[in-house]
Write a structure and sequence with these properties.
The chain has 8 helices and 12 strands. By secondary structure, it is α/β, with parallel strands linked by helices. It folds into 2 domains: 130 residues, Nucleotidyltransferase, domain 5; 152 residues, ATPase, nucleotide binding domain (Nucleotidyltransferase, domain 5, 2-Layer Sandwich), CATH 3.30.420.40. The strands form 3 sheets. The chain has a 5-stranded mixed sheet with strand order 3-2-1-4-7. A 5-stranded mixed sheet has the order 10-9-8-11-12, with helices on both faces. The protein binds zinc ion (ZN).
Length: 302
């Protein structure tokens, strides 16, 4: 059998996995409930068992060249240990890469889930790995990827790119991170639900922009997102900006207005004049596809 890599995307609700041979393409995509594998007890043995079952079923028991796994969690700067996984029991502080390598004898690479989205977008959109690329994914919260020359910027603790937690003076909303008044409180899917409940009760969330797209409450909300993104644009002068996530992919979301507002808030003439935007299409498989891209990148480098 040809060489292959295994990519996994471990979420709070589901675990997704797929394999990819050298010729490319995603094969044997599977999705299972997260709590059918990770219950908080003996997590690494359970994960290794899942991988053995998968490779037994789809690769005749032959192990991959590399395994890349994304988590909705903070992962340490060396990408060997999960520091904190609020949505998945039993992973906090676990040296997942070392433990799985010991159990499976295959190189294992960890990454924050949002960085896997960016790997997937780089491949899909044909984006260059040279220079600075940023991705902003507005879903329930704000996901942010900052890449330099094709690699995520890790930072001292592995937690760079927490754009949603930029502080705002006078903010009175309590953020999920424990601080008060983070931008995420004003520019996230979570905020959109609040706005719906306050101003458009009874409206399906998915209908908000198609029905009320031009009203001031939603225009202000879009500008909050623009301000958040422009802050990072002004700091990093990126080569390109990828815009994605569930909110930005909602039907009727005013993406052009968002770009215009980012331009308006960006410093002139640069970086404003050279801004390059790309759109990330929301798909449940993107995390796994990013993991496959990372898996091959690591396998080729070793
Ligand atoms: Zn916060």
């Amino acid at each position: 059998m040809e060489r292959y890599v295994l990519g996994m995307d471990i979420g709070g609700t589901n675990i997704r996995a797929a394999m990819q041979k050298e010729k490319g393409g995603t094969e044997h995509f599977v999705k299972v409930p997260r709590d059918s594998v990770l219950t908080g007890e003996r997590s690494m043995e359970a994960l290794a068992g899942f991988i053995r079952d998968y490779t037994g079923q789809y690769a005749g028991g032959r192990l991959p060249e590399a395994i890349a796994i994304g988590f909705p969690a903070t992962v340490d700067a060396t990408r060997r240990r999960v520091l904190q996984a609020p949505n998945i029991p039993g992973l906090d502080g676990v040296a997942v890469a070392d433990e799985l390598e010991r159990l499976l004898c295959v190189p294992v690479h960890l990454e924050k889930d949002v960085n896997l989205l960016f790997y997937s977008d780089m491949a899909d959109l044909g984006l260059p790995s040279r220079g600075v690329g940023i991705g902003v994914y507005v879903g329930t919260g704000i996901g942010n990827a900052i890449f330099f020359n094709g690699e995520p910027l890790p930072g001292k603790n592995g937690v760079s790119g927490e754009l949603g937690h930029l502080p705002r003076a006078g903010g009175r909303e309590k953020c999920g991170c424990g601080n008060m008044g983070c931008y995420e409180c004003y520019a996230s899917g979570w905020r959109l639900v609040q706005l719906r409940d306050q101003y458009f009760p009874g409206t399906e969330l998915s209908q908000l922009f198609t029905r009320y797209g031009a009203v001031p409450e939603l225009a202000e909300y879009v500008d909050e997102i623009a301000c958040t993104i422009a802050a990072e644009v002004n700091i990093l002068d990126p080569d390109y900006v990828v815009l994605g996530g569930g909110v930005l992919n909602m039907e009727g979301f005013p993406l052009e207005a968002l770009k215009t507002n980012i331009y308006r808030h960006a410093r002139k003439p640069y970086p404003a004049q050279s801004l390059e935007f790309y759109q990330s299409k929301d798909a449940a498989e993107n995390g796994v596809r990013g993991a496959l891209a990372l898996g091959w990148k690591k396998a080729m480098a070793s």
